[in-house]
Amino acid sequence: xxTLSEQGGVIYSRLIAREGxxxxxxxxxxxxxxxxxxxxxxxxxxxxxxxSVDPDIGYVHRTMxxxxxxxxxxxxxxxxxxxxxxDSHNVTLGLVRAIEKLLDVEPPPRARYLRTxxxxxxxxxxxxxxxxxxxxxxxxxxxxxxxxxxxxVWLQLAEELTGARxxxxxxxxxxxxxxxxxxxxxxxxxxxxxxxxxxxxYMAVFFENPQVRARYEGVGVLKKSEASRLGIVGPNLRASxxxxxxxxxxxxxxxxxxxxxxxxxxxGDAMAxxxxxxxxxxxxxxxxxxxxxxxxxxxxxxxxxxxxLPPPLREQVAKTGRVKFxxxxxxxKLPEGDAVSxxxxxxxxxxxxxxxxxxxxxxxxxxxxxxxxxxxxxxYLAPGHRFMDFPAIYGSLxxxxxxxxx
Amino acid sequence: xxxxxxxxxLHLRAVATGLKYLFLPNRITVYYPEEYIELPExxxxxxxxxxxxxxxxxxxAMICPASAMKMYRTKTDRKGRPGINYQRCIFCGFCVxxxxxxxxxxxxxxxxxxxxxEEMILPPEKFSQEPISPAVAGGARKLKPVFDEERGLRHExx
Lengths: 406, 158
Known about the structure:
The complex is a heterodimer.
Chain A: E1 6-7, E2 10-11, H1 13-16, E3 25-29, E4 40-46, E5 49-56, H2 64-69, H3 76-81, H4 88-103, H5 109-137, H6 141-162, E6 171-172, E7 175-176, H7 184-207, H8 210-216, H9 224-230, H10 235-238, H11 246-249, H12 270-294, H13 303-306, H14 311-320, E8 337-344, E9 349-356, E10 364-368, H15 370-374, H16 377-381, H17 389-397, H18 401-405
Antiparallel strand pairs in A: 1-2, 3-4, 4-5, 6-7, 8-9, 9-10
Helix pairs in contact in A: 4-5, 5-6, 5-12, 5-17, 6-7, 7-12, 12-17
Chain B: H1 2-23, E1 35-37, E2 47-49, H2 59-63, E3 69-72, E4 81-85, H3 94-98, E5 104-106, E6 121-122, H4 124-127, H5 134-137, E7 141-148, E8 152-157
Parallel strand pairs in B: 1-7
Antiparallel strand pairs in B: 2-5, 3-4, 4-6, 7-8
């Protein structure tokens, strides 16, 4: 710890790692390791104290942005969904919004509410996934089993709404693909009540458990100034006391018509990051309740596209609540121009930039994912801590390698 | 001392919560293939093709994001009919949604384990047969997922 130099609140871990020095011990963790996998950390240790951590990313790089440029624009939705399979609606919503901006089409109000509904179900499932992984990193198998088991409740809800457990492919340009199924509100209410009860159990067994608190409190503190300097997003940013959320900053889906709070914490340590996620789950459940109360009636696909359907199909869509695509969807032409959009995922803000050049394929498609922006934290948070704190910090960041690598 | 006492209480509470679930476990395991979960209405499982409704427009093959669906053309039938490759299919259901004649429909069968790779490629003739679930054919018990305030998800026998 004595070798750490601190200047202006920044820990320059790289500078003090004396490479080749006998006193530093270099440890390669991964790319196959018992935590979330697909990435490597090069950790330098002095005794038991971490001197520096270099995240070595790119093991699951699949050139998604380039692949999307080589195919018709609607095909990029199921492709980019696979970036963050645990949060697949939030990850594609940004893309769909960017495409909508280029095509100049707005989803009808009911579609906007349905998008919000699935986004919040996804957010809860994503947070539960992150909490489960964080639990197993502390060898707390109970938390892992509970979070993954309870995630199943939300996946079941999403399955009944969209027809698929994870790869929902729900939002399309101009609306959504399915209407609310019969009896959904009742099931969602039961799921919410169950989760409220379970969160109390989570608190008792994990978050207020003195053993867990001892591992999390004061560990991996991210200062407010550091968080904003490094461009951190999502719950990791809010745990450092900065109230920033793309749901507030960007008016998308139905968020401007719903009431919710953006939970923040001042401490910025691993405990705060975990607690922010718990509070976000509560807020998401609150949003789901509001949506099911307030959801307006009407069409779920923009008139511009409904008009292109032959009359018998139009009647069928109205009756079954399942959208049929007009034939034009196979070859949607993106007009010349640029569109950007940002959306709040479970992990943080995702940013899309789509350029059209009048052809059926996007000329350029770029995405900045929240995990890619947060991965730098490994380098800044871990140095100075004992090695046993490394899994605690890793778990609290909710880092998802396939998302960062794209 | 009071801090230690408070900490001791929290320890006890954690252990008690764990014990509660040791005696009243919240299990959701389903013993497939002896049992199977009934998939909800509108589930996007294996796809069924109805050749008599098909107008051979080829939109399904055009929109397939995974190139799983392709038109099988013959000398006598130049427009072709769709066949599917389940090695590639991602079950997005775009082909079903774009079909203007409802000649493609999703089924609630989603048992996608096959004995050989060749079996996964379905030409139009095979594609137009009703997909069979080996579990159901083997007499598996049907379970229905039910939402429950106390237990989250329960699987009830139908």
